Amino acid sequence: xxxxxxxxxxxxxxxxxxxxxxxxxxxxxxxxxxxxxxxxxxxxxxxxxxxxxxxxxxxxxxxxxxxxxxxxxxxxxxxxxxxxxxxxxxxxxxxxxxxxxxxxxxxxxxxxxxxxxxxxxxxxxxxxxxxxxxxxxxxxxxxxxxxxxxxxxxxxxxxxxxxxxxxxxxxxxxxxxxxxxxxxxxxxxxxxxxxxxxxxxxxxxxxxxxxxxxxxxxxxxxxxxxxxxxxxxxxxxxxxxxxxxxxxxxxxxxxxxxxxxxxxxxxxxxxxxxxxxxxxxxxxxxxxxxxxxxxxxxxxxxxxxxxxxxxxxxxxxxxxxxxxxxxxxxxxxxxxxxxxxxxxx
Amino acid sequence: xxxxxxxxxxxxxxxxxxxxxxxxxxxxxxxxxxxxxxxxxxxxxxxxxxxxxxxxxxxxxxxxxxxxxxxxxxxxxxxxxxxxxxxxxxxxxxxxxxxxxxxxxxxxxxxxxxxxxxxxxxxxxxxxxxxxxxx
Lengths: 345, 135
Hints:
The complex is a heterodimer.
Chain A: H1 4-15, H2 18-21, E1 27-34, E2 45-50, E3 56-60, E4 66-72, E5 75-81, E6 89-96, E7 100-102, E8 105-106, H3 120-129, E9 149-152, H4 159-166, H5 172-183, E10 207-212, E11 216-221, E12 228-232, E13 249-255, E14 258-264, E15 284-293, E16 296-304, E17 313-321
Parallel strand pairs in A: 1-7, 1-8, 12-13
Antiparallel strand pairs in A: 1-4, 2-3, 2-5, 5-6, 9-10, 9-17, 10-11, 11-12, 13-14, 14-15, 15-16, 16-17
Chain B: H1 2-14, E1 16-17, E2 32-48, E3 55-61, E4 67-73, H2 77-82, E5 95-103, E6 109-111, E7 114-117
Parallel strand pairs in B: 4-6
Antiparallel strand pairs in B: 2-3, 2-5, 3-4, 5-7
């Protein structure tokens, strides 16, 4: 277990050492990554983005939990760690000059509190089991990329996507409601009552199976309610008299190798998962889906709702191929005891 | 030197945590108090291998001999299966020790972070990073 007092001493010694400052014009950040129980965590991606230049530097914690981001040009950096099953860790405004800055990172649990079956072991296992294969994306007989496979959507986020996800252009009412929802640990999420949780096409949790035909794309999301999303590829438009529904009506068309899915006809009851944002019936969700290679499926989702956001908000999500996995039944209302015990904050 | 010091200070002030990405069924943190770790040892009385969360119940006897039944919540069965659990991994009548966090509403409920059998074996030990604070 790291000794906090000695860590502070080391930080102070390094930060104020004129000897180190004289060594080079470049700086570095280093430290140890630990979990909420102060056990070291290896394989954690640590990323910094230079605020002035936009350059991104990455390091990964070693088997001893140590990381070093070396050769950093002087400047101000936003540091963040996106590690599945831990809360996102962010430290903006880290000023680097020609010094070696020690920054130990203690990750915190997500709201899952590392519960067995919903905690770190599960995510570590599924990440460990599935070596994402490389190679070109398969194609259907008509030459389109074939998205059909089982996918795991919980992975290291793209740094730019993560930054955009932190600053959605929300109107004040929407920002306030999202903040309240997050602070109350999602107490009022429809998902707590086994209703649809969020509007995006692919669940951020568990596994998703995509079944692609020339005229219909199905996404089966394990753990979602309902489990299946239909995306019509047969050229039909949206019905003119749609009744607002939880997850709307989706049609897709190909733009080269990208499937562009247009979804409208939402009611205002489900949430927007990144950030726990609300939306109105005016929401139009555009999802651009690509399979750039065998092992990855990319979703770039734009939420356009003038009554919620000041301008369209785009969030990128990447799923990994999950070879050998299958989707299993999940009947949420079988024994839901939680709703009456949700306290919130 | 002065600039370095100010930079470090700002970095410290700016440190913060973002919320997790989303909620599957519910966030355990809305129901269980991470500042109230608990360790319970008792006899398994019932197992519910059901959605949205598997549960088991244990009888806890206090020093006066009074018995209370606790409801322990886990993840969903399909994920527990992937992690190596089966519905008979725990058996009614077995003595176990469970570590978790108490329910915020004061009910006799906790989430299960670690489950240990009487002989010391953990029921699916999980990864090396798994483990809870000792109450």
